[in-house]
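Example record

The entry below shows one chain as it appears in the dataset: sequence first, then structure tokens.
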Amino acid sequence: MQSSDLKKLTIAVVGAGYGGAAAAKALSLLGATVTVHEQASRIREVGAGIGLRPSTMDRFRQWGIADAIRKVSSPSDYFEILTATGDPIMKEPWPEIDAFGETTHLIHRGDFIEALLSVLPDGMVRLGHKLERIEDRGDHAVLTCADGTTVEADLVVGADGIKSVVRKRLFSAAEPVFSGEHAYRAVIGIDDAHGMAVDDNLRMYIGRGTKVYLLPLRHRGQVSFDITALCPDATWAPSVTKDDLLRTVEGFDERIVSITRDLDMETVNRRAVYDIDPLGRWHSDSVVLLGDAAHSMLHHQGQGANSAILDAGALADALQEADSIPEALALYQATRKPVTDELQRISRQGWSEDEVDEVFPGQKPASQRPTSQRPAVPAREAEV
């Protein structure tokens, strides 16, 4: 689209998470008028640490915000996978370093979203706007929020996460899929890591039915500690005790057991792990999905947030390259969907099939089973 046409566009982004904030930045750089509508009354990102891959950092460089990200992150050279007792399985440099001239940066989720939101103009993000209804009128769309606010836009970007209202209303009523795993996450001080965070590199320890991630956040003097364990309970926010956690790390390096024993359970984020099945279509002529709303994936490959950022960049690129919004949305989907379909597939796998069989003998995660064999999602937990 011509620059003059892009400057006339009104774009409404639903959701102010990673994908929504990144889309707002990328699309506003085109000259479009962008507003972000977030249901929460304040932005508070819970959880732990993530790795921002070189391709993601390259997008931030293009948008002029890489320095803001670097200030609150630590560069990392490699990741390592070990057995439960610390024997090495593999040690690899992060992919893409040579292609983009960047390295992976480790960052706390809260710092990441704050950095993204800090580079958006004042007033662009509208808090307390819970989407209640969306009408696709072909050449534009209309949002209605629970507080009565009505928004018309030439383009609506649904970046409202795994429980996306936009996806459910317009593209698919299918519910998120339970993986058969829980994730228990906490951020601890480096001194509480019992000497296991000696540099800025991710280490993952794997044992039967359990994976333990230690992701250093040395720029804040902390470590992100994540236990992912097989569990049949599909409750979105399950109850768990200290004894439950200790049972999941039986047989692991004694330092991991000690970290778990010392956890303050009030600080542990507890979640059943869900994704969604790949969608057939992400867009209409005036509405498009992005990030978890389009392709929520399990965290085994660490690609959820990265995929959302790359979606935002690809959407902005497509609007510049195509002659119209519908053509741009088709180009965006054609560019990104094959990539995210594959990431969803391998994230469900977690490892190669041989590794899954070796680490989880007879315990294939639920997300890898045929749909008919998956555990049912409790009705009240499945509501969007």
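Notes for this example: The chain has a mean pLDDT of 89. The first strand starts at residue 10 and ends at 14.
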